[in-house]
Amino acid sequence: YSVILTYFIFRNKSEKLFNSIKIFLFVLSIQIFLGIFTLISGLNIFLASAHQISSVLLVFSSLNLYYNKIK
To answer: pTM for the full model?
Structure first.
């Protein structure tokens, strides 16, 4: 869904959403990498906690993207 959303934002040249989608993709990539490294490390508690904290940031960045779309 994120890839399709990004495609449509850049294809339609929605300049007011460029910064929001970049932040969203950055936090999403951090979330993915932390999840992978958490599993590879044998469920290291520090990586698992960072993964959970980044999920909150991911929700905030998706809300930011949503509310910038409405404006």
So the answer is: 0.90
